[in-house]
Write a structure and sequence with these properties.
The chain has 421 residues and is α/β, with parallel strands linked by helices. Helices cover 31% and strands 23% of the residues.
């Protein structure tokens, strides 16, 4: 081997060694001690516990010895997994009344619509949402004129440009009452689309097994998404309220082996036993007790408690826009006041969301993402605030635009308040 090659190899090895050493040296370890830890996992609630995080993961819970670069004494305060919002347009809509700030829908949108391309991590609503202890969110587009509204995606609320966790992780369809036409048409169209792609995939498999010379035509983009639904690779997030629509969706799940998730589902309490038997999660609001249509006459503040009692995995999500998403914990408190166990309320905000959307978060357990919130008191109480928050292991601020405006206009100055900088 030539001397020049040997020197080159040595330089490469040295560079790799330095890079590894730098990564090790930069890895910061933080220990949160003396905390009341709601793990939302098999360990339950831990008193006077220690949680150790390094980089973006939880690496230890109650270790025998604590060695960390930074130690934070929680002084008995509650530590929970970061709450996970879902089924909203956070980062896609800044001001609902201003069309230039709306990126959640397009009349040409179809099943391939990937709204994550328009996600704005610097939206003023992101920091505002963090005030509610929400560290990540499932964002859903509103679609267009077709049957499918597009696909959801997951993002953490760090505000970083690389904050999207998972793209295209669920397929959205809106069913039920319509101002024009019949709800039957949408249900029938969904059935037909799934049947068509199933038949096409079956023919492709037959051609392959028979080793026919003429290759089958490759699948189109929309067909690939439908294929992923049949394979159970993505959940079908189906918005519907009336019991008959929910039952029709349960039959489609059985027929095609879908990973079905019911969204809204005001009438779910009427058929809770069937939904539980089908092992179908329900994403619903805790405070949607006033009917907005004839499809939602059975909304009640106790619905979440009833669904959980029936054995259904429930996810709590507000109905409407994302501007008040930070109040999600108050919705959970209302559900608790109407019969939902506190442990189930925590699950509906964390672990259940992570399970439905296959996220490595939602629990305080070794190996999970270090998305954590340290609270000043009970998270479901109005007076409680976020004391500290970590997203992917990094401490983030809960200061929002509203705080900046308050500080600006309450500062003492010689000029009128409106002109204070």
């Amino acid at each position: 081997m030539k001397l020049k090659q040997i020197n080159s190899i040595k330089q490469t090895a040295l560079a790799l060694s330095l890079a590894m050493f730098t990564n090790i040296a930069c890895a910061k370890t933080t220990a949160i001690t003396n905390a009341t830890v709601y793990t939302v996992a098999s360990q339950g609630i831990l008193q006077h516990a220690t949680v150790v995080i390094e980089d973006d993961k939880i690496i230890a819970i109650n270790p025998e010895q604590v060695e960390a670069d930074e130690t934070i004494d929680a002084k008995g305060r509650i530590l929970t997994p970061g709450f996970i919002g879902s089924m909203n347009a956070l980062g896609l809509v800044e001001v609902g009344a201003v069309s230039l700030t709306r990126d959640s829908r397009d009349k040409k949108a179809d099943i391939t619509f990937d709204a994550s391309l328009a996600f704005n991590p610097k939206s003023t609503l992101v920091a505002y949402t963090r005030k509610g202890g929400i560290t990540s969110n499932i964002v859903t587009p509103a679609g267009g004129e077709g049957l499918f509204a597009g696909q959801s995606f997951a993002a953490n609320l760090s505000g970083d440009f690389e904050s999207i966790i998972a793209k295209q992780n669920g397929v959205i369809v809106y069913l039920g009452a319509t101002s024009k036409g019949s709800r039957a048409q949408a249900l029938q169209a969904l059935d037909h689309k799934l049947a068509d792609i199933q038949e096409k995939l079956s023919k492709k498999a037959d051609n392959k097994s028979e080793k026919k010379e003429k290759p089958a035509k490759p699948l189109k983009r929309n067909e690939k998404v439908l294929k992923s639904l049949l394979a159970g690779e993505k959940p079908l997030l189906a918005y519907a309220d009336r019991a008959t629509d929910l039952l029709a969706l349960l039959r489609l799940k059985e027929k095609y082996g879908l990973d079905l998730v019911l969204v809204g589902a005001s009438d779910a309490v009427l058929i809770a036993d069937k939904i539980a038997a089908a092992d179908v999660p329900v994403i619903t609001s805790a405070i949607d007790n006033l009917p907005s249509s004839f499809d939602s006459l059975h909304g009640d503040l106790s619905n979440m408690a009833q669904l959980v009692k029936a054995g259904i995995k429930v996810v709590l999500a507000p109905k409407g826009e994302s501007h008040n998403l930070n109040q999600l914990r108050f919705d959970a408190g209302i559900a608790v006041a109407n019969g939902l166990a506190k442990t189930d309320a925590y699950s509906a905000l964390t672990a259940n969301v992570a399970d439905v959307f296959k996220l490595n978060s939602g629990r305080i357990a070794i190996g999970k993402n270090a998305d954590l919130v340290l609270w000043s008191g009970d998270p479901f109480e109005l007076s409680t605030k976020v004391d500290k928050m970590w997203i992917a292991g990094k401490e983030v601020s809960t200061q929002s635009r509203q705080d900046a405006l308050r500080n600006r206009y309450t500062s003492k100055a010689n000029m009128p308040k409106a002109y204070v900088k």
